[in-house]
Design brief:
alpha/beta, Ribose 5-phosphate Isomerase B, Chain: A, 5 strands
Length: about 170
């Protein structure tokens, strides 16, 4: 199985350790960066990693940042991606069994190396159960199709032209 991996600067050291683990376990790993602990914006790695999954260039992917939130939010903007932020083995298992998650997002600052290794191993070894869960995943994909994948890159109109998070009530 080919797996993409990427991180921002906060996840860099953990990413390097996980690359070694993945190779040791026999996976083909494609590293999308970053290549140092110097400041690096998480959307700049999450988008290309998620696109590699969506385009079937890799089967699954792992993304890391300090909390895992930024890479999760960013990756889930790409049609066809089901990125799951996991903090323990159970959430990793459920993300695969019930949600067919194809991108694992990890919080490099919040969990230790041993737990991170176990999460990755569980996530990679767990199969999607299908059945009633397949129906639910299809509904997620339909929501995505109706709202994100309309040829506008998932962008929502911003009539005020204000940057995200700014107060447009002047």
């Amino acid at each position: 199985m080919k797996i993409a991996i990427g991180s921002d600067h906060r996840g860099y050291l953990a990413k390097e350790k996980l690359k070694a683990l993945l190779s040791e376990l026999g996976y083909d790993v494609e590293d999308f960066g970053t290549d140092s602990p110097k400041s690096f914006d998480y959307p700049d790695v999450a988008a290309p990693v998620a696109k590699a999954v969506a385009d079937n260039r890799v089967e699954r992917a792992i993304l890391l940042c300090g909390t895992g939130l930024g890479v999760s939010i960013s990756a889930n903007k790409i049609c066809g991606v089901r990125a799951a932020l996991c903090h323990d083995e159970l959430t990793a298992q459920m993300s695969r069994q019930h949600n067919d998650a194809n991108v694992l997002c990890l919080p490099a600052d919040l969990i230790g190396e041993a737990l991170m290794r176990r999460i990755v191993e569980v996530w990679l070894e767990t199969a999607f159960e299908g059945g009633r869960h397949a129906r639910r995943v299809m509904k997620i994909m339909e929501i995505e199709k109706q709202n994100l994948c309309r040829g506008n890159g998932g962008e929502r109109p911003n009539p005020a032209g204000d940057p995200p998070g700014s107060d447009s009530k002047k």
